User: Fold this.
Amino acid sequence: MNEEEDIASIELYLQKKLSEEDRANLETRLRTDAAFAELFHDIRILIEGVKESSRQELRNDLKKVEEALSSSERKEGALMMLDTRWWIAIAASLTLAIILFTVVQVRHSPPELYTEFYRPYPNVASPTIRGEAQGNLAHAFGSYERGQYEDAAVKFESLEPKDHVVYFYLASAYLADEEVDKAIGNFEKCLALEGLFTVQARWYLALCYLYKEDTTISLKLLNEILKSENDYSDKAAQLIQRITAEK
Amino acid sequence: MDIKNIVEQFQTTGTAGLASFYEENRKDFLQWIKKVYRCDNDDAKDIYQSAIISFYENMMHGKLSELKSTARTYLFAIGRNKAMEFQRKQARFVPLEGSNEKTRDDDEVIVDAGLLKLALESLDKLGDPCRVLLQEFYFHHSTMSNIVTKLGYKNEVAAKSQKYKCLLRLRKMFKATYKIIQP
Assistant:
């Protein structure tokens, strides 16, 4: 057996994919062939090293995702605080107006609800694979992350073929740039392909239709989100309640 | 989405798909782990990230084909084990809670910490594209066909040959460093 074949059999042994007979033969060889035993020992450590290095990179990627999500939550929290103070001021004014014999009713139109619930989706994607195509994708995500949504949209549009993830971020870039019709078209393409951004795509598509004052489609999409356990269920339930109350 | 679809998505979208999975389960997981295991926000996030990494590894290594529960339930079961491990290290309170799902990795390879550190340093010196190729094969369990597409090799034979050369170069660097510290 040459060295490449030896390495292949060591890999299969470590993955527990050898037949019982081949496993027994390899174990015998480990006891009798010192050079093979040394190769086995080295390959075992090196493979574990490759895996550990990958885990560390993955952990760094997840920390970036966590930071993006936490940052988005902090901004949302700050804006909600601002909204809360604003509404306290409005409520105080209204109370005064009522006391002064004026009754004012505040209603929120669908576009106003859109403004209240919309936040640009954070960049949680960080492509790690090298290569020409991945370079263009990385540039598109870079523009998106810097809030250069028009530029990001141009870059995402130039990518071929587009997949579920690209359609999602293209749509998100258009939405952030207030090109709602283009956002709708691309969120629908994203949903047609099915994937890991399906829930997010449904949420933002619901917001798009809210912007366009089509509460019927918006409610339909929000109710779809409630059919499974996910991180958007609470927001969807809240928005459904608000839309229904404003009708 | 079933496990098979999740695997396919992760293989094609890479960390973008994993990031979406991370986001979808994050809020509920963090709330649960902080409540049950009484850990702070930072520890909860560390445990969650460890759970996600283990989930990804087990899934890409084909260990979830016999899974009876949903991906989410399995993730939480891994999280339970990670939290208990964490608590053991901290010697804190550990709630009496069992798991019917096998989540611990019986195939876990125990390697000397010093040698592992040497391997990591050698891999760092090796650099790209070898490092990426080896990671694709050994960690992400990409098929040779996917590796050809992602990394731009001529064909599967060329990719396989390059993988073998990269591994031998890595071994050479590892042994050279090992000899320096172990004369």
Summary: Chain B has eight helices and no strands.
